Write a sequence for this structure.
């Protein structure tokens, strides 16, 4: 299954999220990759709850930019409350008020 096929098999809300985050990543000269269990679940036709993404560059910096751009990217969705930083890995996790994460 190719990347466009995987993208089409995601629920609309998750697909829109990835497209919006991908736009932010492009501003940093980075590409966005869908990784982890969600890829396995999509390939096997299973439901999934969490989306993991990987950026070619500083994930924390891009995640922080996503939070800043959230109102214009996703005006109908509550924004994350913070970005949890994992300094050792240059990554970040979006934390929402209801404990959802991306």
């Amino acid at each position: 299954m190719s990347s466009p096929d995987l993208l089409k098999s995601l629920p609309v809300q998750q697909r829109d999220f990835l497209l919006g985050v991908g736009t932010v990543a492009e501003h940093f000269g980075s590409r966005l990759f869908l990784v982890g269990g969600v890829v396995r679940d999509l390939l096997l036709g299973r439901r999934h709850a969490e989306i993991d993404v990987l950026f070619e560059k500083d994930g924390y910096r891009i995640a922080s930019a996503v939070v800043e751009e959230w109102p214009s990217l996703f005006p109908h969705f509550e924004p994350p409350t913070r970005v949890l930083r994992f300094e050792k890995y240059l990554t970040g996790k979006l934390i929402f008020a209801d404990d959802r994460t991306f």
About this structure: The chain has four helices and four strands.
